[in-house]
TrEMBL record:
Membrane topology summary: Single-pass type II membrane protein
Naturally occurring in which organism (per UniProt): Lymnaea stagnalis (Great pond snail)
PANTHER family for the chain: BETA-1,3-N-ACETYLGLUCOSAMINYLTRANSFERASE, HEXOSYLTRANSFERASE
Location within or outside the cell: Golgi apparatus membrane
Protein family per UniProt: Belongs to the glycosyltransferase 31 family.
GO CC entries: Golgi membrane
Entry protein name: Hexosyltransferase
Keyword Membrane set for record: yes
Length: 360
């Protein structure tokens, strides 16, 4: 009997220590926020969606905690509903996009495929059948290409093109490790401009030129020519960055944002998104849009054409939509505001896609 006493003591001490430890650990566990039950990422309940692009080997829990950590540093965080805990949605990935400090869910809509199919079944109403005056058709296929930088340019802008080639954009493209290409897109200019372009092509080989007249009113044709060329000759790349010849960009940063975004979205356009813009109704305005061409009071939500980024698969979709959609001449309104929503392409804002036009 005397032998039981020390054993009893050991059991009591062990029991007490484990209970206290459990309490402390539970408190710590909850305080650190590792367990997400204490957070809410949205005012509204949100759901989780399948995401085939989730990198292999990442667990739902780690994805969720990464997202949570990121969002918990932002204002507007409320309490998370326990029933939204991710455990019961194994094999899914939370997809949220932060826009203007509002946390919005993004779901992959199964109806989307039907919408795309329905659109593609529609007849082509704006065929884009211009001849190429210059076509560096192997620019992407000559060597491995991940990123294509497309620059809309006017025939007479040879100085700007020189500056672009000589900018950090040019440096980035010349660095073989970046697997990037830079191409300018121009329409037809007058004969003296054409001579210069022919010289430029001989020297740099980086100009795509079609036969439509290069006048401002034809910017839609130029934008479509860029989508078309990419669909036809650069399918192997991952991303396209479209940047005007007078916009300064940090290519490395933009590519990083595109890669990150592509983990959570299939089809998207990154840019500077404009909401509730008024159409210019003054006939003297550079951007004049007649009521006959566009009767609505407000422009659709769209992204400014000066700087945009998208996956190549999205470019293909946008090109097909552009062929089948009643146009407005303003290319960015047409492609990002009217064509994109028809084929379920999301418009996303990111501060790294803010830009200003500049004098070089
Ligand atoms: C061609 O266009 C340029 C502007 O880029 C202009 O300066 C020039 O006078 C034009 N030449 C002809 C022959 O029209
Ligand atoms: C290119 O940049 C270098 C300096 O970085 C400068 O010396 C040169 O004149 C530039 N060339 C053109 C065509 O702008």
């Amino acid at each position: 009997m005397a032998a039981m006493k020390p054993l009893f003591k050991v059991v009591v001490v062990f029991g007490t220590v484990t209970s206290v430890l459990t309490v402390i650990l539970t408190l710590l566990y909850n305080r650190t926020g590792i367990y997400p039950v204490h957070y809410k990422v949205s005012n509204r309940p949100f759901t989780f969606s399948e995401d085939a692009n989730r990198p292999p080997g990442t667990s739902l829990r780690s994805d969720f905690n990464t997202l949570l950590r990121r969002y918990s540093e932002r204002p507007g965080l409320r309490e998370f509903q326990p029933e939204d805990a991710p455990d019961k949605y194994s094999n899914s990935l939370l997809a949220i996009e932060v826009r203007n400090n509002r946390h919005e869910k993004t779901t992959v809509d199964p109806k989307l495929n039907n919408a795309v199919e329905a659109l593609l079944a529609q007849p082509i109403i704006n065929d884009h059948n211009f001849e190429y005056i210059h076509n560096p058709r192997n620019a992407c296929s000559n060597s491995p290409t991940d990123v294509l930088v497309t620059v809309p340019s006017a025939p007479g802008n040879w100085e700007k093109r020189m500056k672009v080639r000589n900018s950090s954009r040019g440096d980035y493209v010349r660095d073989q490790g970046n697997r990037a290409r830079l191409l300018f897109f121009v329409g037809k200019g007058n004969s003296s401009e054409q001579d210069r372009i022919d010289e430029e092509v001989a020297r740099f080989g980086d100009i795509v030129q079609e036969t439509f007249d290069d006048v401002y009113k034809n910017i839609r044709l130029k934008a479509v020519s860029m989508l078309k060329w990419t669909s036809a000759f650069c399918q192997g790349a991952d991303f396209v960055i479209r940047a005007d010849d007078d916009v300064k960009i940090n290519l490395m940063g933009l590519v990083a944002v595109l890669k990150r975004t592509a983990l959570r979205h299939e089809h998207f356009i990154l840019g500077r998104v404009k909401v509730e813009d008024d159409p210019a109704r003054d006939p003297n305005s550079k951007y004049f849009l007649s009521r006959a061409e566009y009767p609505r009071r407000k422009l659709p939500r769209y992204a400014l054409g000066g700087l945009l980024g998208y996956p190549v698969r999205t470019v293909t979709l946008l090109y097909q939509a552009a062929l089948r959609t009643k146009p407005v001449w303003l290319d960015d309104v047409f492609i990002t505001g009217i064509c994109a929503p028809k084929v379920g392409v999301e418009l996303l804002s990111d501060p790294s896609f803010d830009f200003t036009h500049k004098e070089w």
